Structure prediction request, 73 residues.
Amino acid sequence: MGETSKQKASKSFPSKVKAWFTGFRGEFGKIVWPNRKTLTKESVAVLVVSVVLGVIIAVIDFAARAGIEFLIK
Prediction:
């Protein structure tokens, strides 16, 4: 069955650290890494979307600035 709270509290720090690294290693092994083609396609997609959003934000900023200047003058 499960451990009692006293058993959990009695575990030493080094054994907790070792258990953490064991779990970390097990989880790290489950990662599915993308191949070069997939990584390239996804990187290009991120760059394109970033540039497009940057242009959209710049246009909105320019329009807002022009509108404010028009109202002030």
Summary: The CA atoms of residues 33 and 64 lie 43 Å apart. The chain has one domain: 5-72.
